[in-house]
Design brief:
352 residues; alpha+beta; 60s Ribosomal Protein L30, Chain: A; 3 domains; four-stranded mixed β-sheet
């Protein structure tokens, strides 16, 4: 649902078929060519994309690694009456993560026995490093949980994910009133373990190559997950972000920051575009530079607020060379307004 919304597609326009479970969804997709996509998990997603001609993985949690959050929960009354046991459960989970990484083969064997799965599939699920870079799920350590639950400046923290999910489920009619995140988050458990795990570092951060985005730009669309168009109004002939001129700028920057946060294992290209109303009057290189400067102003503002790895981002200035498909008339004021936009493109890390 989040992916559809990020791509500018209204989930209400999609004809959904709800399956009993993920393997059932994969089976329907394979047997009925009228379906365009399915949501599933390993090993189905790999078996289908490898064996079914014309299909591909659009996005996985390997790329959108801060979007789907599997969390442990206990009832409020149990937490109130047994705080030490809950803290012990949390610490036990972290010790379990360490045990998986210490002996991934043994973990895969235990997984196969517990769920009656082929051991070779479980080896792939766990990965040779026990869910750091390899495998189907990144097992989160203390530092990563701390950033998720306790860092208010994390653009993909618990509150952001919770509120996004609440909005989606409410729009689908699955829930009525939304519950504030503060009502369900017990911050004190993780905070109380801070000293025990003070030397643990975040292992979820990928290494972004400074030259990778040049290749992605040259191969436009190769492996691309989505393009999100956002409207930011700049003062005429200026590239500075001015919230007094466009009071939606802070919210738009936050929207882009959250997108970049959700796709933690992805490169982000920010493209500036202009309308063609002055084509033939103003030199094209000046217009392209203006569009670049505007996109770069967006990048700098996001970097300043969220402290991303600078190699995660690239800026492109298209000038008037990239109009929207149905907005190509430079004499049409509405077309021009839509073309004065910034596009945010998401490319998975493996594309590079």
């Amino acid at each position: 649902m989040s992916l559809l919304i990020d791509a500018g597609i209204d989930p209400g326009d999609i004809d959904f078929k709800w399956a009993a479970d993920a393997p059932s969804a994969a089976k329907i997709f394979v047997q009925d060519p009228s379906y365009d996509a399915f949501v599933g998990w390993s090993p189905d997603i790999y078996n289908v994309s490898d064996k079914l001609k014309g299909s591909r993985l659009v996005v996985t949690t390997g790329t959108a690694n801060h979007l789907i959050a599997d969390v442990w929960a206990v009832r409020n009354d149990f937490y109130r009456d047994h705080p030490r046991e809950v803290a012990g459960l949390v610490q036990g989970i972290f010790e379990g993560v360490d045990a998986v990484r210490k002996d991934p083969k043994l973990a895969a064997k235990a997984l196969a026995m517990a769920f009656k799965l082929p051991e070779e599939d479980c080896v792939k699920m766990v990965g040779t490093d026990g869910g750091i870079v390899e495998g189907d799920a990144h097992l989160t350590n203390y530092r990563e949980n701390s950033k998720f639950f306790l860092d208010p400046f994390n653009p993909a923290n618990f509150e952001v994910v919770w509120n996004s999910a609440s909005t989606i489920y409410k729009s689908l009619g699955m829930i009525n009133p939304t519950v504030p995140a503060s009502k369900v988050k017990a911050s004190s458990v993780l905070a109380g373990l801070a000293d025990t795990y003070k030397d643990v570092r975040d292992l979820s951060q990928p290494t972004f190559k400074p030259d990778a985005l040049m290749k992605l730009s040259a191969e436009a669309g190769a492996g691309q997950v989505l393009t999100k168009a956002v409207m930011i109004s700049f003062e005429p002939n200026k590239s500075a972000l001015n919230a007094e001129y466009d009071n939606t700028i802070p919210a738009t920057l936050e929207e882009i920051g959250k997108l970049a946060g959700r796709f933690g294992n992805a490169y982000i290209i920010i493209e500036g575009n202009t309308d063609a109303s002055r084509k033939g009057i103003v030199p094209s290189d000046l217009v392209r530079q203006l569009s670049y400067d505007r996109a770069d102003a967006v990048r700098r503002a996001i970097m300043e607020k969220y402290k991303f790895d600078p190699n995660k981002f690239k800026v492109v200035g298209n000038g008037w060379d990239n109009p929207l498909p149905n907005c190509t008339d430079p004499s049409n004021a509405e077309h021009n307004k839509k073309n004065r936009r910034v596009e945010v493109k998401v490319f998975p890390l493996e594309s590079s």
